[in-house]
Write a structure and sequence with these properties.
heterodimer; A: about 110 residues; alpha+beta; Alpha-Beta Plaits; 4-stranded antiparallel sheet; two-stranded antiparallel sheet; 6 strands; about 30% strand; B: about 450 residues; 2 domains; 10-stranded mixed sheet; 5-stranded antiparallel sheet; 12 helices; 18 strands; about 30% helix
Chain lengths: ~110, ~450
Amino acid sequence: MSIRLYDIAHARAGDKGNTSNISVTAYNDAGWQVIHRELTTERVLAHFRHLGAGPVRRYELPQLRALNFVIENALGGGVTRSLAIDPHGKSLSALMLTIDLPGHNEGAAAP
Amino acid sequence: MAPTKIRIGCGAGFSDDRIPPGVEIVERGDLDYLAMECLAERTIARETLDRAKDPTKGYTPVLLERMEAIMPPALKRGIKIVTNMGAANPMGAANILRKHAPDWGCPDYRCAVVRGDEVTDIMRAHPELALMEDGAPLESLLPRMASANAYLGADVVAQGFATGADLVITGRVADPALFLGPMLHAFGWSYDDYAKLANGTLAGHLLECSGQLTGGCFADPGKKEVEDLAGLGYPLADVWADGRVEISKTPGSGGRLDVATCTEQLLYEMHDPTAYITPDCVLDASGVSFRQLAKDRVALDGARGKPRTATYKVVVGYFDGYMGSGEMGFAGVNAVARAKLGIEVVKERLRRRGLTYSEMRIDLIGMNSLHANDAALAPEPYEVRLRIAARTTDKKAAEAVGAEVRSLHMQGPTGAGGGVNFGARQILAVKSVLIPREWVRPEIVMERAA
């Protein structure tokens, strides 16, 4: 069984130079348990490696049920130089949420 | 007598931000101060080039349009304004406003100008400085340097208001400092009072992107709803002299302000939450939490502060060649194959013209343009747009990219439609260095009617 990150968390992406940071916030405590346990830097790196990205650092804010991922080299050379159609990488939050994690349906949020 | 509470609103969060919500927060927000943040990392480089062509220019291009809408209702209500729309020429901004403001019904106001963020001379004198991005010496960029500006702190904004100014115009100032400045001025907070500096900096960080705190960049239909997103209101902060902060938004406006929107914006463009470095303090946001007090009203808790660093961050803008790009659309049966043929044709035509590029990016919009995923794994869409973008030091080669893409209309695969040639644009890139604070000499200058 797997659970899609989209179903248990929301995300926002920001940029600084050639580094993207993407926060991932669980909708509830059960979802926080899942992302805290399963959404590792290795999984995130595997999902972003095709962009030439890495390394990845992870910061935890349990009181907000949030993780902050800092993903270096994810923005095609940086906002000001990138040839990408989305140089800020604002859309990368949605790429993050396509990650599948091991788990059952715990943490899924009712709309 | 010093106030016990002030209310600061955000009137703009980027240079081309929407003006109507800024007017709305002035008219309905019951504000004491309005801050408008309008400088991205590289825009000041563009404005520095404008000033080189015309010494009266170099301020944010939208300055007059925005201020014509904002200044009359703000000054009428006694709301004090701070903005970094001075960009590369704060005094030029002040002068042009003085020329137009009487026509807007604003004949009398006091304007203070912050100068001294520009440090190009200091950069030229210190080629040995190491770039923060890669450790290389600054020297390598100097021949191509377009601009260099230090991120000043809230102290200069407070000094601007201390002159009795109704309007403070700055160049490069750290974004949260535009909000912390009014607090320092109103309450006389000291740079030793880390708890208050942390709360004020946190408030500024949350507010500085305008609608991103109040439901912008958030809605996902059926999943994360935002009420009246079209009528999104801008955020405001109630700040008490003891450092307490509550945030809200324009009464009666659309949007959403709650723990979820605050959490997303807290971490926006933040790396290590224990060390968010600003010129005013090092904010430790790792223990921050949000309390929903009422609908669209949230209290901030748990910010901690550490002393400001001994350095200022300087962003250096430099020329980095040209980028050319173009797009063309295909739809119906075999659309993707025709788009791929179009790509090969453009690449071959550029090659036969002897044009070379240091980097080329190919996208199939509708399949892989945003996430650079493997197009072979994406479902075939009914329609697709090819996009080609390329980097080069030769402006003519850059211009050729979009021109060759657009000519696919007539000389490409069948059924090519909706082409766009985006032309060539000069790339202004940025890198950063740190310099000792004492090298920078900010000054407050009063602008006066000519």
